[in-house]
Structure formats: structure tokens, C-alpha cells
């Protein structure tokens, strides 16, 4: 049908494998280093905080990795997720562009995050783990792991960045409803948290701080492991179900994207949609533009340094080579809490360094304006994080209007904003401002980058 709005796949089309981009990188990733010895890290080093199956996936260069049956069974609750043609938005913009969005807000937690939460919970359960600790920014990842913990009978402890803990009480309530313990970070429950509070009693927190607390807690008990919601290779791997489905759905639409857009904080939702299409660019030479959108108040890809850095503030994690603003940098408290991270996924950083994707940043107010413009046309209110991808898509559609080109734009609408209404209330009341980061703080944080020979 020429006027089709949604493209749906049945459960028989649920992917059976994840796609691992490490198999197709034109140059391999820089090795992950032990924080003490500065030597390449071993599986035994990582076994303190991760289950073996996850470690194997983190280091794998196999192109396809099988999705376990129990994980696929849970995925069936909401996957395959729908692909929409944004026809009303196209009309509102008066653009010849063809706009598509893959909608991950249909998951039980309302975002793309369960794609990896379910997998990580399964692998931990399989290894006999009883408890998982983690961090969360906006609360979408914490909600997803709380849900996964219920499905697989695991205790979940979530350190939630203080500014989001205060802004989003219903995210906290969601986690607690599913049995998780949710703690505002920085907290007095860990040495890392107490050290931050001693120096900054009013700290708004950051993902780097919350990671430190979660890792510290995980390392204290043999029955406990740590789970991460973004950044690492295995997390981005699990998210590729999104792009694998989208390739089939774009074929149903008899179309193919000229550009793919996603928001980036740690990088998982962008990678989930983009990597399966990047495979076709890397292996077949298909011409696709990949646009990674981040907040101007935390511009990791656009303003950061490509260097080895810690993934957390207390320097408990291994060293990875990535675009970073420095592990000690605490971003201002803007509402897209899931994007307030000092570093970018090593795989995405590597691809950006190779010139295979285009990073871009936008301010908070223009992203909220784009989200409301999208909602009025399409009827879906995006999460503040997803608004960055919406802004990027609208920007490109407006450029098509000016040039007269009819390009196909595909973006990842990675979650809904139903738990983010305070942010929208603040925006419509004129209370939000475009926040800027302190360049001297970034300079100080980058000056503290670890020395790696």
C-alpha cells in the first residue's frame, strides 16, 4: 500500500542472532587495559563483575551470536517492534523527505533497554548469580533490569543518578514495584559515594559516579555481578535486534535509508539501529549516512578527546579507548538523564574516529520543541533522550525541503516520555534553560586522563 503507516513483523521474524560489528571493523578496536598494570585485560580480570558468557561476547569477533531460546521467549512479549512511516510529520514539515522511525517504546519498560537487560539477566542466572548491581541515569535502564530480574528471579540493586532520582519519582516507583532497590547516587552506602559527598554534599551525581558505586558493591560478594546498560561491546551487540528487524521492515516499505539517526549517551540505542546497516556499508559499500546526536551540555563525541579513560569516577573499571570528557567530569543537570555520561562506547568512538559516522549536538530547548512537534503530528510523546534523534531527523527533513531532495530518513525512537512529564511541564512553563558545561571543568578532567604508554 502506498499510504502504509506501520510495518509489522510477526514473531516468526524475531531475529535468531545478534550482529557483532567487531567482525567487520576495518581496523580492530584498541585493547581494553587493566587499570593497575595497563596491560590488556584478561577474561579472569573481568570475571569479578561479569558472567563468563557476557565476557566471551565482549571479546568476540564472530559476526553472528545466537540469541538463547529463553531470551527470545521474553523478547516475544514486544518484539518485533513496529516501524512507522511518519507521514503526518512529513506533511507538517512540508518536506519531500521520507521519514521512518523504529519505535522501541512498546517494550514493557517503555524503551530499548530490555533488549540487553533480558539477555544479561539470563546469563547471570545461568551462572548461578543471585544479585545484580547497576546504575541508571534517566531510569529506563534501571526499570528494564528490574523487569528482567523479576523474570529470572534475581535481586536487583540500582544506583540512580541523584538529579534523575529527584526529577523522576515514577521511574523509581516502577523499579520498586518490580522488586528492585533504588538508591540515589552519590550515596552513603559505598566508599565511592561517601568520598564524593564529603567533597560535594549537594552533588547532582553522574553516571560515572553511579557506576563506581554499583561496581564497588558488586565486587564485595561472590553471588553478585554488575550489569551495564550501555557503552560496552556486549550491550551494543544485544541491541542489534532493532536494526536487524528494521532492515526487513524497510524492505517491506520498498525503501532503503539514506541516513540513520540516533541519540547517543553511551551509544547503545544508536548502535542497535545503525550497526546492522553499517554492516552493509562496510561489506557491500552501500551509501548510508550515520548521524549520532548528543546533548550540547555533554558533547562527548563532538568535543571530547579520543583517549584511554576510566568508565567510572572512582577509577574502579578497566581503561577503554573512547571519546571522553574525562571521568571526573560531572555534566550539568539537564533533563535527558540517560545522555549524561562522560564517555562514548568504544565501538562508536572507533567508528567516529574512522569517519564512518557524523556526530552532532543540540541544545535542550530545541530538542524539547522537536519532541512536542513530533508528538502533535505522530501522537507519541518521546523521552527527552529520544528528542535528540527527533531533532536530528527534523533538521534533515527541513534540509530536504530546502533542497527539494527526497531522502529516506530512519531514526530510532528509543523510548516514550510518559515518566518524564515533569520535564515537559517545566518546558511548557518556560522553566527550562539551555545548560552549558564549564569548559574549565572539562579541561581539568581531561588533564587527569590516565597515562598509557
TrEMBL record:
Alphabetically sorted, this entry's keywords are: Amino-acid biosynthesis, Aromatic amino acid biosynthesis, Lyase, Pyridoxal phosphate, Tryptophan biosynthesis
- EC number assigned by the record: 4.2.1.20
Its recorded reaction(s) are:
(1S,2R)-1-C-(indol-3-yl)glycerol 3-phosphate + L-serine = D-glyceraldehyde 3-phosphate + L-tryptophan + H2O
Xref: InterPro entries:
Trp_synth_b-like (IPR006316), Trp_synth_b_CS (IPR006653), Trp_synth_beta (IPR006654), Trp_synth_beta/beta-like (IPR023026), TrpB-like_PALP (IPR001926), TrpB-like_PALP_sf (IPR036052)
Requisite cofactors: pyridoxal 5'-phosphate
Instruction: Report the superkingdom from the record.
Output: Bacteria
Instruction: Kindly give the SUPFAM superfamilies that the UniProt entry links to this protein.
Output: Tryptophan synthase beta subunit-like PLP-dependent enzymes
Q: Does the keyword Amino-acid biosynthesis apply?
A: yes
- Please give the residue positions where the record annotates the modification N6-(pyridoxal phosphate)lysine: 113
* Residues in Tryptophan synthase beta chain-like PALP domain copies: 77-415
Judged by the first EC level, this protein's enzyme class is: lyase
Q: Name one Pfam family in it.
A: PALP
Q: Pathway it acts in?
A: Amino-acid biosynthesis; L-tryptophan biosynthesis; L-tryptophan from chorismate: step 5/5
Any one Gene Ontology molecular-function term assigned to this protein's record = tryptophan synthase activity
Q: Which Gene3D superfamilies match?
A: 3.40.50.1100
Q: Which HAMAP family match?
A: Trp_synth_beta (MF_00133)
Assembly and binders: Tetramer of two alpha and two beta chains.
What does it do? Answer: The beta subunit is responsible for the synthesis of L-tryptophan from indole and L-serine.
PANTHER family tied to this protein: TRYPTOPHAN SYNTHASE (PTHR48077:SF6), TRYPTOPHAN SYNTHASE-RELATED (PTHR48077)
Family the entry assigns: Belongs to the TrpB family.
Q: What is this protein called?
A: Tryptophan synthase beta chain
Gene name of the encoded protein? trpB_2
